[in-house]
Amino acid sequence: MTFDVARPWSMSDGLAIGLYLVEFPSGQVLYANPRFLQLAGLEALEELIRRGEATHSHVLHALAASDAEAFFPTHLPPSGEPPSGQEEGLVELANGRTLRRLSTPARDAAGKVLRQLYLFEDVTERMRTEQALRRSEQSFRRVIENAPEAIFIHSNHRFIYVNPMLLKALRYEHPSELIGQDILTIVHPDDRKLARQRIHSAADLGKLAPLKELRYLRRDGTWFDVESTGVPVEFDGMNAVVVMARDVSERKQMQAQLLQTDRLSMVGTLAAGVGHEINNPLSYVQANLALALESMKELAQERMGAGAGGPEAQRWNEQFAELETLLQEAHEGALRVRNIVRDLKSFSRQEEEERRTAVDVREPLGFSLKMAASELRHRAQLITKYEPVPLVHADASRLGQVFLNLLINAAQALPEENSARNTITLWVRLDASGRVAVDVSDTGAGMPPEVIARIFDPFFTTKPVGKGTGLGLSICHGIIRDLGGEISVRSEVGRGTTFTVLLPPMRPAAAAGAPSPGSPVNRAERRGRLLIIDDEPLVARSLSRIIGRQHQVAVVVNSQEGLAQLTSGEPFDVIFCDLMMPGLTGMDLYEQVLERRPELAPRFVFITGGSYTPRARRFLETIPNTWLEKPFDVQHIQRLIAKALEAS
User: Is the dihedral of CA 542, 543, 548, 553 positive or negative?
Assistant: First the structure.
């Protein structure tokens, strides 16, 4: 064959694919286009090939040793017979480039191979791109596999991929347990309509399914809240949706707790404000009633001592007795109002930090009973068994929150129509390990084991929708746990339920310092000089009446006047000062006296209606002085004065 045979191939000189044509059995190179010479680095052979003098051996010798084997892995055998069929492969060159090689023989009518055509395409960039894509896919898969969010892919409503976090959230062991299953099997029945709408939007319309809250079903039958979003994608050649879901149960619990805290804080603020407004008039009502009652008794005794007899004396005695009864009932009513305000404030108080003190559990249990009275009285008979128990170190308002929740739950477990037969029993006792135990028992319907197992889980409730958040017992559990105690439940279907709160007792040394509520009144043997400073004249006068019979009392209803008296040099044994007054507050007055007459500062006793600003709270926490809440306890004031006079 002459060189002219290659002339038609010259049309391929401009191709981006390298062409190489060799004749058999001579091995003469019939054609090699510029692209082949460039790829093989054989530009030096171009003239030899053009003249038709180049052979396949020239090409092999001109190629680098490593590239010769790469370009032509099947050499011409000694017999001169080329490969019998078409071959395809990749060529890895020493310079780092990759070529795709295709070789095909040209035969005569007898089937004898006359020529072999080689085509070479530079696929280096394509291979690099494919490798980068594979690495990216592997990296992306690792990211998905290790993502902190639950991720799954579905197509035609069925799982086709699930990541480990979803398996963990749903409590499955292996992807095969979910792959191929209908995705709606993990969705709460009440949320499936919404889920179908979102699937249609993402899978059928190709729209992003925005973040939305749903409930998913775990393998053990429990539900949990998630926020999920769906993104339409192509996965393994099919239309699919990638769903990313985040468990928001803990966040919702925190939000609900914060909401409850905010509600209690608002109630506390309202109670403090209302209490302050009630306590001022209640102070002089209660004090004046107490004094009137005492005066009435003295008058009755004087009349009886006068020795008057007959019908007139009988009539006076009856009137005195009736007036005494009226005053006593009015006084008891005032005490009841005072206790209601104190109980409401005690329950609702939400401090920045817990105020743990020595607490007799019967006290928060008592004000919780009062708060729950409206629920209890129409549903059950109340039975109390209070045994002597040591004090505990706790925040009384938080304990009251726990007891109130248990009491309300017990009441709501009982039908109203059987109030005469229903009972709620409170038993305060020591358990076998020496801990303080409070049992709250009811004779309601009881609970099955599967409910008991989840009773302290956040958001679990057996109440109808809208009747409960499922957080009450969970919060109670957290409060008691933080106090170092335990809360447990025993229940039997048809017989009732008992919740038991166990708290560690205070150490004897700590409990010894706790105040005793029943200390006797020590009457002062000498008369003291006392100053009362309060911007409410009626409050100041009522306090003056309480202490004025035994002592010399000065009353001022303006803090500036009080400052003038205190800085004038007059001696005072006890100074009763209202904490919150317009203009110069009791705190400001104290600080000025501390500078001018520091010897009087320890004699301040602050009185307050119960409304505290942050500054007032910090002030009371930092000073060593005593402070009293209105309305006043007469005996407590008398004890306080006696103690102050003894000290001076």
Answer: negative
Residue 604 in contact with residue 589, Cβ under 8 Å? Answer: no
Given 348, 378, 407, which residue is the final one in a domain? 348
The CATH number of the domain holding residue 229 is 3.30.450.20
193 and 123, same domain (yes or no): no
3-state secondary structure 18-84: EEEEEECCCCEEEEECHHHHHHHCCHHHHHHHHCCCCEHHHHHHHCCHHHHHHHCCCCCCCCCCCCC
- Averaged over successive runs of 10 residues, the pLDDT of the chain (648 residues) comes to 50 82 85 86 83 83 68 53 70 82 85 86 88 80 84 93 93 93 94 94 91 91 91 88 91 74 66 70 76 75 63 72 77 69 56 68 88 83 93 86 88 82 92 94 88 72 49 76 90 91 80 46 68 90 81 92 91 92 92 93 88 81 88 81 83
* Alpha carbon of residue 548 to chain centroid: 54
Residue 537 preceded by cis peptide, ω within 30: no
Tally of CA atoms within 13 A in the half-sphere of 467 that contains its CB:
9
Kindly report whether the global pTM for this prediction surpasses the value 0.70: no
Domain that holds residue 204: 147-247
Cis omega (within 30 of 0) for bond into 388: no
Q: Is the residue at 388 inside a domain?
A: yes
